[in-house]
Amino acid sequence: MPRIGAGPEVFDVAAIIFDKDNTLLDGVAFLGRLFQAREKQVYRWAGPEVVSLWRKLSGVADEPPRPQDRWVPAPGKIWLDRRGSLFEAAGHEEVTLLAGALAAGGRPWADARAEAQALLKAADEDLSVPDITWPFPGVPELLKDLKKRGFKLAVATADGLRRSRQQLAYMGVLEDLVTVVTPERVKRPKPFPDMVELACEEMGLLAEQTLMVGDSPVDGEMGKAAGCRATIGIGSSTGDPSLWDVILPAVTELRPL
């Protein structure tokens, strides 16, 4: 079984499951651009009052609230809450939040839900993959090296399947993955264990043969709930240290041995 080093620890595992945004690529820049495109659509359709409420529900602000430890600057001179719905909600949850803002503006619920689906779809389709995909330095090379050394690789992300596969293909790593698991493929999204369980099933492995690598507390919770061999936190927004066996400053600090 291949071995990998993470900080002071060494793990014998057959596979590694990665989160996507803020683990493999710059999720802050991606989500900032994504929200701006969506906001234009919603503003034209529903006006400023709906946009204002929807921003609050999404965790988006022109200035970071105090304390600002969870907030990060993004393109377009906006601030994003790293524990907010824009970072952690599944696609159907995003639709519900926007539909709620539209309904609060006076639309019947059935109309609000249909409009929310259409607005988000239109905005997402306006964005080109190169405009929203910035892999962290060294990530494509790391994944290719891990595969060459015998690790099975998977991605488990809160983003949608179509866009995730497009971004990973643009990075040149989709072919190195056994599977990409997204919320529409499981009954329950992060932090429930379903996404890890499906990834393991499709890799033909048990959870205790895998590492879960991610930047968010929900990644750590998911890995622990699924029974992964270890959970590896990436970056400075990993939350409760007890969720992680090791915390690294960047995913490229992983060392295949």
Key phrases:
single chain; 257 residues; alpha/beta; 3-stranded antiparallel β-sheet; elongated
3D architecture notes:
The chain is an alpha/beta fold. It has two domains: 3-25 and 133-256, Rossmann fold (3-Layer(aba) Sandwich); 28-130, no CATH class. The chain contains ten helices and twelve strands. It has helices at residues 27-46, 48-58, 85-88, 91-104, 109-126, 129-132, 139-148, 161-171, 194-203, 217-226; strands spanning 3-6, 9-12, 15-18, 60-61, 71-74, 78-81, 152-156, 179-181, 210-214, 230-234, 246-248, 255-256. The strands form three sheets. A six-stranded parallel sheet has the order 8-7-3-9-10-11, with helices on both faces. A three-stranded antiparallel sheet has the order 2-1-12, with no helix packed on it. Helix 1 packs across helix 5 (109-126), helix 2 runs antiparallel to helix 4 and helix 4 packs across helix 5.
